[in-house]
Write a structure and sequence with these properties.
It is a single chain. The chain is of the alpha+beta class. It is built from 23 helices and 15 strands. It has a four-stranded mixed sheet. Strands 3-10-9 form a three-stranded antiparallel sheet, covered by helices on one side. A two-stranded antiparallel ribbon has the order 1-2. Helix 5 (85-100) runs parallel beside helix 7 and helix 15 packs across helix 18.
């Protein structure tokens, strides 16, 4: 039995995967239902149920649960941040003022707020011109002044589509022509200039137009290291997002886990996988695209609500044609419930797919690998099961009201057979995501200090069916980073055939002591970690790792013995293989590795992560061939490598120097 297990902390962690906002109403609702039925019913009636089908149906058909459920579920209604022509107009006027004062960044922000709050063209009544078209036009001028020609062009095209007043049209084609020139689209530029001349007529300043026609414009170049790599070698036959260098095995008491099929070098890409489902954190709604999670520069909004923003029309259309049309008018209610991002993702797994396909999945869950992931249902407490069943009922009610099931009676709470099926899927999602979801992050750098003062910031949550198969190790074999919503898994040290390929779920041995790691893992993920770092209680960076003895491998290739340093003589007799071996070269290589780590640090300080990556991969391969963990300098180098590979993913320079 795990001496570090904390049942109270475990229950709290489980509740936090359902509701994270303490001001929300969901846990109060769950507590009300629990008190109404009593502990004995929960334990001896509900707790004896074996399937999600039984659980979801019982809460709807038992009088003591249905009464408080009806009180809450009958109040589910559309609550969302509506559009406002007046607010949009006020923000646009503020933006114009900021522009006159020379504060273009503030103006850009205010114009974007004006765009997001503006109603659909045709829904305003008090204004002659569309607030959306004027906001887009104004923002385009700011973007044009910042040489963001492609973004400015997109805004002007949208402004024209949204009914830009005739007085602006001649000027808009003129500015669009400038954008086309900057984007090397000469033919379109000439057409746009011709239209501008025609529309402006006597108001045309021919000399100024001619200057723009003959001038050279260049789109501002942006440094972008973001890169989505390809997996090493051929794809796996069963898991196409993974390299065939990996294999999935099963062992009693361990479950499924990943091993290496062949030699893997440090830095090799082993998995590149898009999410099955992903949700942006609510606090990122104003800074990141709701669909692709890219940072926003000139966002456009939903056609109905003011809650979310998209980076371009493609993302907007993708979201509005699938999940957002069902979530849109209930977002404030969902957030107000206090529900966790995992609960939102459980819902997104439904809303992103049409009902007919969801029902097909229900009939045959083998269609999607995500439905084979662990839920720990056999050890889940009855009270926890009841809470998740009630969350599934709440989410199901939102789907009923949103029209997901068609135009039926939306005032009816009792589910139909089809709705019960979706309720079962929701309940499965709420269990599975607790143990299999990944937090998506971006690396934020601090201006000219770059990687020296970087910070990892979580922006969303997703489930990746292939990566979810990797077990945990407090000394992981891989590192992960994200490119948009896609996860990239790279080897952080070399691997040999049959080596377990494990990632890290959060508590890593270099930063957390054994007690903290065991408490966290047993409470959050419900398992006792038996990795080497835990079995041998390796010290952390701050509690003795510096003093841990260095070791050197015997030079006999068939021997697995390691000599503990220091040694009195470079030539010694190995106590295991009984051969006399010379350790001089391996000792030299160990010093070389440590020197290479320093060289990599210098390259990273010079903002050259590509060079640092090359140095680190070579040195780490060498270290693990001749020496053995734990070794402080090597673990710091592995952390440095993680920072380097993350620099090719989601990165923003938004941290300001204090």
């Amino acid at each position: 039995m795990n001496q570090y297990k904390d049942d109270r902390y475990m229950a709290m962690c489980s509740e936090r995967t359902l509701q994270t906002n303490s001001k929300g109403f969901f846990m109060n609702f769950a507590q009300l239902v629990s008190e109404n039925v009593g502990e004995e019913w929960i334990k001896h009636v509900f707790g004896k149920l074996k399937t999600d089908r039984q659980r979801i149906r019982l809460v709807y058909n038992h009088k003591q649960t249905m009464l408080p459920m009806t009180d809450v579920l009958s109040n589910v209604q559309e609550i969302y941040r509506r559009k406002s022509a007046e607010v949009s107009e006020a923000k646009r006027l503020e933006a114009e003022k900021a522009t006159k004062e020379g504060d273009l960044q503030k103006a850009l922000l205010l114009y974007s707020q004006s765009v997001l709050r503006a109603p659909k063209t045709g829904l305003y009544t008090k204004m002659e011109a569309s607030p959306l078209s004027l906001a887009l036009w104004g923002r385009a001028q700011i973007l044009l002044s910042q040489k963001e020609h492609s973004l400015a062009l997109s805004d002007m095209q949208l402004a024209l589509k949204e009914g830009l007043p005739i007085a602006y049209k001649g000027k808009s084609f003129w500015k669009m022509a400038v954008c086309y020139k900057a984007l090397n689209e000469e033919n379109r530029a000439n057409v746009a200039f011709a239209l501008a001349e025609k529309l402006l007529g006597s108001k045309l300043n021919k000399e100024e137009l001619e200057r723009d026609r003959t001038a050279s414009y260049v789109e501002r170049k942006k440094e972008n290291r973001r890169f989505l790599p390809s997996i090493e070698g051929q794809p796996h036959s069963t898991f196409p997002c993974a390299s065939k260098k990996l294999s999935v095995r099963h062992k009693e008491g361990v479950g499924r886990y990943v091993v290496a099929n062949e030699t893997v070098k440090t830095g090799e890409t082993l998995v590149v996988e898009p999410p099955y489902a992903a949700c942006l954190l609510p606090e990122m709604f104003g800074t990141h695209c709701h669909h692709c999670f890219d940072r926003l520069v000139s966002p456009i909004g939903c056609l109905d609500c003011s809650n979310v923003a998209f980076c371009n029309q493609a993302c907007q259309e993708a979201a509005l044609s699938t999940y957002h049309k069902y979530e849109c008018k209930f977002l404030d209610l969902l957030l107000g419930s206090g529900m966790s991002i995992l609960s939102h993702t459980a819902l997104r797994m439904i809303t992103q797919i049409e009902l007919s396909k969801c029902l097909e999945i229900y009939k045959d869950r083998s269609r999607e690998k995500v439905y084979s992931l662990c839920t720990n249902a056999s050890i889940r407490p009855a009270e926890d099961f009841l809470q998740r069943t009630l969350m599934a009922a709440f989410l199901l009610r939102c789907l009923q009201k949103s029209g997901y099931f068609g135009r039926g009676d939306r005032n009816r709470i009792a589910p139909t057979e089809e709705e019960y099926c979706i309720g079962e899927l929701l309940l499965f999602h709420l269990q599975m995501l607790q143990f299999n979801a990944h937090e998506i992050y971006e690396t934020r750098n601090a201006g000219e200090r770059g990687f020296k003062r970087s910070k990892v910031v979580y922006i969303g949550v997703a489930v990746y069916p292939t990566v979810a198969l990797f077990n945990h190790d407090c000394y992981p074999a891989v590192t992960r980073h994200f490119v948009g919503k896609q996860i990239v898994i790279k080897a952080s040290r070399p691997l040999q055939p049959d080596d377990v390929v494990a990632e890290n779920y959060g508590p890593i041995f270099t930063r957390k002591c054994l007690k903290e790691r065991q408490r966290s893992l047993s409470s959050r993920y419900w398992f006792d970690c038996q990795c080497k770092a835990c079995t041998f209680n390796w010290p952390t960076l701050d509690t003795g790792l510096e003093d841990y003895s260095k070791r050197i491998r015997c030079t006999n290739k068939n021997c697995s013995f390691f000599f503990t340093l220091p040694i009195s003589n470079d030539v010694v007799k190995c106590p295991k293989c009984k051969e006399t071996v010379a350790l001089t070269e391996n000792l030299r290589l160990l010093k070389w590795c440590e020197g290479q780590y320093d060289e990599a640090a210098k390259a990273l300080s010079s903002n050259d992560p590509e060079k640092a990556t090359q140095i680190l991969c070579s040195a780490l391969d060498t270290f693990h061939r001749i020496s053995l963990a734990p070794h402080k300098a090597t673990h710091l180098a592995e952390q440095m490598l993680q920072l380097c590979v993350a620099s090719t993913g989601n990165v923003s320079s938004t941290l300001m120097r204090k």
